Amino acid sequence: MPLLPGHILIVDDDALNQRLLTKSLESDHHRTTSVDNGFAALAALEVDSPDVVLLDVVMPGLDGIEVLERMKADPRLLHIPVIMISGMDDSDSIVRCIEAGAEDYLPKPFDPVILRARIGAALNRARLRDLEQDRVREVFTRFLPEPIAAEMLARSDGEPSIRAVRLWGTVMFVDLRGFTTFAESAPVEQVIAVLGRYQGTMGDAVLDHGGTLVDYLGDGLMAAFGAPIESVDHADRAVAAAREMATARLADFNAWLQTEGMDASFSMGIGLNSGRVMSGTLGTERRIDYAVIGDTVNTAARIEQLTKQTGHAILLADQTRTNMSGSTDALAFVDEFEIRGKQSRIKLWTTDERTDSAL
């Protein structure tokens, strides 16, 4: 299989060696960038990240080993393959380079065949890592907004897992009212199509407001705001998402049902609660799930159930209201309620989008 060309950064203070390496690499259709010192190498890495670095060990000023150590200490550069090059027969330096994270070592004067083989091996490793990163990114973007997915990818060192943390967040439970009755009489293809449309519409609302899709629960969903990365406006984002879901998103969904010729219209119940949660991925290499657990979660689920008896599409705990960083003027007090598992009654508020959610 022919080797796909890559971008090679050559770092060598010897002008003749630079020219020889450049000529050899460009004859194999690689793109090259050449610099003659360690500081210029670090600057070049910032401007245009290469696929592989050929790095001279002995240079004036910042030598190759120091450049290598700085690269391996930088999460953005950590995984770029580095092949050390040197005219010195110094086994201690070679060992130090390998221990510091170098992929390989190339002696001067270099053999073009060996150079081609080592560049090819380094490019293959880099591309395998890129494929793995794409796979992990795909896993994360199933339930995380793109910016958070990118940050989690960097934090997880490319692994498809999210480190367990305890943080402040807002948990949302959503339920579609009337779907069970509809599903009992509608054709199965229609039921699946309606459920898919609903989950896509409401899931997008969560992601668009910076929330995390924790799980789809049949005709409902669970989401978290401020997890897995803590944010000061988690409650505001959750309330904004809930309002959009219960109004514009639900209206669009019901309008779609009519255009599809279905004599159906649904309402929703949404429960919000804020507090400490535990967040992280669970599972094995074959299957992983993102989980948010804790008393805050249990209470949010029970608050959602109360929308059935109050007639409000949205109910939020007083803890969510007090966690909001923006205005709470649009919230209306509903009442105090007993919540199973809680010793004292909880004050609940609404955004006053009334509904027939008790149906």
General description of the model:
This protein has 359 residues and is an alpha/beta fold. The protein folds into two domains: 7-140, Rossmann fold, CATH 3.40.50; 146-350, Alpha-Beta Plaits, CATH 3.30.70. The chain contains eleven helices and 13 strands. It has helices at 15-27, 38-47, 64-72, 91-100, 112-140, 146-155, 179-185, 188-208, 234-259, 295-310, 318-323; strands spanning 7-11, 31-35, 52-56, 82-86, 104-107, 165-177, 212-217, 220-225, 267-283, 288-293, 314-317, 332-337, 346-350. The strands form two sheets. Strands 6, 7, 8, 9, 10, 11, 12 and 13 form an eight-stranded mixed sheet that branches. A five-stranded parallel sheet has the order 2-1-3-4-5, sandwiched between helices. A hairpin with an 8-residue loop joins strand 12 (332-337) and strand 13 (346-350). The relative contact order is 0.09. The mean pLDDT is 86.
Using the coordinates shown, work out and report the CATH topology of the largest domain: Alpha-Beta Plaits
Residue share in helix: 40-55%
Low-confidence regions: none
Number of helices: 11
- Which CATH first-tier class of the largest domain would you pick? Alpha Beta
Described by strand count, sense and barrel closure, the largest sheet is: 8 strands, mixed
Following the backbone from N to C, one meets helices and strands in this order, namely EHEHEHEHEHHEHHEEHEEHEHEE
Distance separating the two termini: 64 Å
Helical/strand content category: alpha/beta
Average residue pLDDT: 86
CATH architecture of the largest domain: 2-Layer Sandwich
